[in-house]
Amino acid sequence: MSDEIDPDNILTAEGYEVPRTLDELSVWWWSKYQLFAATKAGRAYAREGNGLLIKKFHDEAQPMIAYMRRFPPKAGVRCKLLAGNEEEDALYVDSSGSVARKFQITTAVDGRTEKLRRRQLTRVGHVDGLAKLTDDDEIPDDALPSDRYSLIEEMAAYVLAAIERKNEKGYDPGFTLIVGFNDNTFDGEEDLSRFRMHIGNPTHKFAELYIVGILGHIAIP
Known about the structure:
Elements: H1 13-16, H2 22-37, H3 40-48, H4 52-70, E1 78-81, E2 90-93, E3 99-107, H5 111-124, H6 148-169, E4 176-181, H7 188-199, E5 208-213, E6 219-220
Parallel strand pairs: 3-4, 4-5
Antiparallel strand pairs: 1-2, 2-3, 5-6
Helix pairs in contact: 2-4, 3-5, 6-7
């Protein structure tokens, strides 16, 4: 009998929604990530985004952790991720269990390109984060990289599009909006300056807006 964990059983709604400090949330997320990464079936499951919970794990929990690292909550406050289709993606709860803050969270990606990158990663085990699509909308195994500055401009456009999509939803203005993005190709103050230039001052309908790179290289404001 195999000792491998069924990828369907790695994440549960009950476990996902346990209120946690930043350290607890980081340890929990990384432990689950390692379980998915430990087997071929787990890696494929995680990359292909099978189901709502694994999508939330990547697109909401990971940006939330990046946000909390850059902008730590007050002492005694815990983060509760929400596993369902509620308006809130996460809450800050205080020591009494009262809600101190409500969050909407999204990840800014080019969905088509990201899907193709995940497919290549599953197929050949690696993919260049700067890889550009061919005229046939494919990422070749020996892909040539895009210009990094062009990628910064493209990522800023994805972030602005994500903000606008959230604006159109008409959420309660009391929400804090977190927009996560993949900052693995960003390097230093020059890239941050270029990114800020392309982001500008986006109009939004939320109490606060934070734009955070999931690897911690970039954060606005």
